[in-house]
Amino acid sequence: MVKVRAARPAEAEDLTGLVMRSKAHWGYDAAFLAACAPELRIRAGDVTARRVVVAENGRGEVVGVASLEGTPPRAELGLLFVEPSAVGQGVGRLLYRDVLRRAVELGVRRLVIDSDPHATGFYRAMGAVPVAEPAASAASPAAPAAEAGGTALVRFEAAPVPLADWARAWTGGGRAVHLGNVGEFNAQFADATLDREQRPAHHYACLAAFYSPYPAALVLPRPVPRGWTELVCRQLGWTGVEVYDGLLDADPGLAEAVRARPALAALLTGSGLPLVPWGRTRAFGRLAGRPWRDGELRYESKSAAHGLFGRILADGGHPGIVLPRQWRVDGRWAAARMLAARTRAGESTVLKSEHGVGGSGTTVLTPARVRAAGGARAVLRRLPRGPLLVEEYVGGAASRGDEGPRDLTYDGFVDEAGRAHEVGGAVMEVADGCYRGATVGTGVVPGWAEKSLIAFGAAVGRELADSGYRGWFDVDFVADGTGRLAPTETNLRLTGPSIAFMVAARLDALRGAGHLVRIADRVELGARLPEAQLDELCAALARGCAELGAVFVPAIPTGAFEPAPWLGVLVAARGREVLDAAEAWVRAEALAVGAMFGPS
Asked: Under 8 Å CB-to-CB from 411, ≥6 apart: which residues?
């Protein structure tokens, strides 16, 4: 295990030797190395002044060296050299991330890197951004070296930032234990639109890897590929993450499965770390030693949420928000009569169940669809049994004259003290009422919507806090044709967008500020793959995205073993064009895996 420690003045001569061996690794001739030697020398007095650290392996051998030089808010990565025998073992990555962490602690907001041309691929992969500003010359004491013949160094910059305030508040700034109790949460509502076996829920339990920016342990109902957890840890700079999987066969009660293993329950709850679930349940309350509050999830109901929105809007102060009308119907034939009347009037309608996840239980019906299905009664016969809500359909954004986003969401949480925290807004991808993914990051939510979305989401958070709810929540919106937002539901649990927010917070702290993160729930695979080949595919997707300037993280691997195989993925980049290109490439490569097996 390699660890980073402060260098010692007495090591200066040995460290100079390491630097020169590392420089020679790139094939420079003896004359050039001799010319560089005075600039690359580390003196005893430099160790403290240049903030020099070393990487030391498990045998106590120094295998790398790095320095952080300058005065905040601007500093330089003066040295970053790895012993040739240790190249490719993650030493450079460990040192670079340590420099970024120390830069944050010092208050550095601009880290300048003058890279040897041979090292540019490494700095791109680490998230540094190339800049047009001229790099240091070979004479610069901060320059690692210049290529023989006067080839210029390549200048990069990074923007070190601390972990986001909301992320520190979410888990107290530290690590957490993540409980993937998606099926257990869904089962509370006994909704007819939810799979009784909770098979999809157990796939989505894999998102437990991302319930906070840095987990200490993952608790999962089904077995997950070891190669998946290793790649996720590598991509997000995690170490020491324990995985407890395969705890259930069919029963969705994950918290009870943990309690049935007293040693595991004591280990998880006695660690002193926060225990973070997908959503609150009575069983989770027993596991965590947290009293269950009757009715604390009442606003998970779509009709209750609609009533909450109406009460907030009745007080005024939200001119950018419009609430669609909603009716709770007594039975199927009453719903059919109302749907038929709206169809005759040329009005589109949304039918909803009281609960449901990812759009399950939500059906959008235009007059043309109703007629094509054979009328309102025929439509109703095809829907799952259970209570129904009839809701006014909110028209699209065409009259704004743009192709802006239609579906948006606000994420926040209420801490145990009852304080509501804002996380931010995101743009969702929704097809025919079903959630498909989301994108988070600065500038993603358009300016015309941001103020209204944030203000209304914050108001919902305060009401939830007053009602006794504690935990994560989101508020989903659709945009109408006049530049207003219509709130459609609250989710009192973690969600796909929340996962993207967690990963964005981690990548910003790990690689520098400014990441856009997209979660795509379902990327189709061209063929089912054995576990080893799935690992190879994901590793290749990670490498390919890095070459594009993006980050790839597999989010849901277990869908790859279904008869119709798929993956859930996360893609991150610092610009929208790169993000879109990386997602398109990932989708194409995932489909192309079927080609190796020939025609079906």
From this structure: 423, 424, 425, 426, 457, 472, 473, 474, 495, 497, 498, 501
